[in-house]
Amino acid sequence: MNKQWLWNLLTIVLLVVGLVAWIMLPWQGVLAVAVALALWLFLTRQGRLALAATGIGIASLPQRWGASSVIVVGIAGVVAVLVAMLSMGRGFQTTMNSTGNENTAIVLRGGSQAETNSVIMRDQVPLISSLPGIARDGEGRPLVSPELSQVVNLVSREDGNDVNAQFRGVGELGWAVHDSVKIVEGRKYGSGLREIVVGQGAQKQFRDLDVGSTLTLGNQQWQVVGKFASGDVHDSEIWTDAQTLASTYNRGAWQLVSVRTEGKAGFEQFKAAMAGDPRLKLDVETTKAYYAKQSGQLNQLLTILGTVIGAIMAVGAVFGALNTMYAAVAGRAREIATMRAIGFRGLPVVMAVMLETMLLALLGGILGGLLAWLIFNGYSASTMGSNFSAVVFQFKVTPELLWSGLKWALGIGLVGGLFPALRAARLPITTALRAL
């Protein structure tokens, strides 16, 4: 009894390890496995027998399509949920990674991980502006934008609940620093006026942000005068003049300074000069690096969560495949016994059942991936960013995620078909033939 228990436990452990190794296998490895299997099937006698036995099993699928559809639908559900969960993280990461570039730097207080916990004194801004490596506009002014980040409550269009939004105060030269931000409707806000422009993502997410609308923020009335588009995380924000925002919320210091540098060399020069000035105990990095870092933890969390949920659902799909294939083997007992009696050995029978299950799993994987792509690809959602405000992004179902889902499907089919296949190979010929 103990030996049998240990053997079963070892079998389960080996299956889990093998399944994990299969899912992590790169496409080159999968291609090598597929080529090796194809060569064995077409160039060996046992392989050709396995193909013949598989053909017999597939031909009988219409007679038991109801039971077989359990495998297809179950695996399709696993793949659809898994790909959808992972596409959420991939979409958020893509939005964050598309924000910023190598020519724009963000300056924060030393040790600050995000804008919300950073403080930069006003008298430090002229010192920052005097450093080398900073690009200048046509009038010779350094492209430096002292900014504020204020979290405000706006009403969600979807359910009417209050949601945190990013209200950013931008310096006079902020539009030149953030040159990817373009007005697509209306106009820019005026300096010293309580006027705001809204990102296209924020306008879709929140109420009362249409151009011409008025809303109350900080006990003051603000006029929406324009809408902008940037194609990145700034689409989720609303912007105004930095000094106006500071006076509204009684801010005596800035939170960050955005700087446009003279290319990569200019950034390195600016960073070195910043580190060499003892009056400036500030951190500086490119905006691309900063926003990419902000997305890392959430993407990792969503990946882990999606994998765990997918694994739990995969267990259910495996049991569904096991039940279905055990029933199929029992129902085809005479057929399998007849094949064994006329010369089919155990290996071709095992491979026939396995190939049949893998085919059903492949159909389920394709169906699940197609559903995930049709329903979720490009679907807009929002989540909380590093500044505790909503970031609007789109789910991104990539070929890489679809490929991962397909490998999960084939892995489930492999595990679900293995034990029924072994049972079919060990089926006593004489016992089965007595039923003829």
From TrEMBL:
Transmembrane stretches, start-end: 5-23, 29-44, 65-88, 301-328, 349-376, 401-422
Keywords for this protein: Cell membrane, Membrane, Transmembrane, Transmembrane helix
Q: What is the lineage of its organism?
A: Bacteria, Pseudomonadati, Pseudomonadota, Gammaproteobacteria, Lysobacterales
**Matching InterPro entries:** ABC3_permease_C, MacB_PCD, Macrolide_Exporter_MacB
Q: Which residues form the MacB-like periplasmic core domain?
A: 70-274
Q: Which residues form the ABC3 transporter permease C-terminal domain?
A: 308-428
Tell me the compartments it is located in. Answer: Cell membrane
Record's bilayer topology term: Multi-pass membrane protein
> Where is this protein primarily located?
membrane
Its name, as the record gives it, is: ABC transporter permease
Q: What residue ranges carry the coiled-coil annotation?
A: none
Pfam families xref list? FtsX, MacB_PCD
**Its domain of life?**
Bacteria
